[in-house]
Amino acid sequence: MVRGTWHLAVVLGLMAAASAILGPVLAQQQKRWAAIDPNSETNSPVVWGANEEEARGRAVEACKRISKTCANGPAVTEDLREVFALVCCTKPKTGCAAAAAANKREASRNAQQMFTDAGYSDCSVRHFLGASTGRKQ
Known about the structure:
alpha+beta; 2 domains; three-stranded antiparallel β-sheet; 42% helix
């Protein structure tokens, strides 16, 4: 009986050590980035990638499949708790942009600031999308 208990203790110890070593590695491998490349129709999807570059590329591709008015400048975040704000302006011409932030107010402010800096006006938030699900909020 002592020998069986000893083997169980060794196995449990090895499992705990493997978990401590591999846990951070597995968590890093599972990290996802979210991105959206906005368009004037405001129907671009949120997409995900294993890293920032992959997420950006997928966002551009996804937009181009459904629209000819893509911004070709995706908003991206590695924090899937964030929200994307999709903002469009009409002056001097129609344009849409997205920005990610921890909450709707911040994301909206960030997207609108991009347009203000570029001389656009008559801007409004079209909708918000969750970075983790891509669903409207």
